[in-house]
Amino acid sequence: MAPKVVVSPRPRANEIVSQLEAAGCNVVMLPLRETDGWQEFTEDDIATYFKDADAFVGSTREHYSRAVFEGAPRLRIGCGMVIGTENIDVDAATDLSIVIAHGATPENYVGVAEAVVMLSAALVKQLPAKRMAVQDGGWRVPFPGHMVRDSVIGMIGFGKIGRAVAHRLEPWGCRLIATDPYVDRSHALEFGVELMDMDTLLQTADLVSLQVVLTDETRDMMGEREFSLMKPGAYFVNTSRGLCVDEGALLRALDGGRLAGAAIDVWRKEPTNEENPLRNHPRVIPTGHNVGHSEAVYASFPPTAVENVLRGLRGDRPLYVRNPEVLPFWRKRLARLDAEGVKV
To answer: Is 190 a residue of the active site?
Structure first.
């Protein structure tokens, strides 16, 4: 029997469908529903699309909840197209011995790292003020900025993006520091990065870059207290997730003179409201959750999602796994499904 794969109807879906069908899968595309926020699946949706599904490829617009996983007893693998999986209840999937794959392609995390370096240099060099001065009919600005060389760049989170940032900034002569409770100090030192606790990093860095995934632990991790710890005149970059930052606290840090500037690619509500004062702030570089995107990263998503799914259906480790701790339990579950005659 051909394995059933449920696919989100979002951009590039046709490429995923055609590749999965060419591999012998029975592909069912979800209906396109425009919603404000995540699309929630009803009991009827779960019964219709997931009850006999062997895999799914989701976008960031749908919510794959515990109810979805509990209603999909045949499910072998769930796959998100991008790095972030906050719309997927990974804990529930892990509890049920289901592997979750995602799109942590080099084009994705290197693209974000390139953007962090670009935004860091633009802020330190006072690009927003210099650009505005000329656009407003002036010429020079009173404060020309700093050298990137000798700047202390602090990274909150030192995963693939952080390592790629370090690889690019280390030759610039920066001092690189990071905080990440899940990274070994010796591993960070291999990249020329000094690990420290978060408070010390905030007090030390000339620029702080937030590079974490959204979890209960990282939600609202940058608020009033954290911004007050940052050095006067420091800069802040957020390319992770908007819900990790209290936007009101960031605005007060900018207007109160604590911070000299910020770059914001991700927002608490996306698209952010036109009246959001951070959107048109003179010392903010605002972008629409795409500053690290490129044609290369978009092209990488469909084949990666397809390969993740096909590997998962075969019982092989997917290319990029969000919950690697589940793998031994996942393999036992697949063996049980096969013994029960639920073969793909």
So the answer is: no
Quick one: CA dihedral 266, 267, 270, 272, positive or negative?
A: negative
241 as an active site residue: the answer is yes
Strand, helix or coil for residue 80: strand
Question: Tens digit of pLDDT for each residue in 173-198?
Answer: 999 999 999 999 999 999 999 999 99
Q: Please tell me whether residues 25 and 67 are part of one structural domain.
A: yes
Condensed to tens digits (0 to 9), the pLDDT of residues 35-75 reads 777 889 999 999 999 999 999 999 988 999 999 999 999 99
The domain that contains 82 carries what CATH number?
3.40.50.720
Does residue 267 share a domain with residue 206? yes
63 classed as catalytic: no
Domain carrying residue 300? 4-102+295-339
CB atoms within 10 A of CB 338: 12
Catalytic site residue from 63, 76, 241, 322? 241
Same domain, 315 and 214: no
Catalytic-labelled residue, pool 270, 314, 336, 340: 270
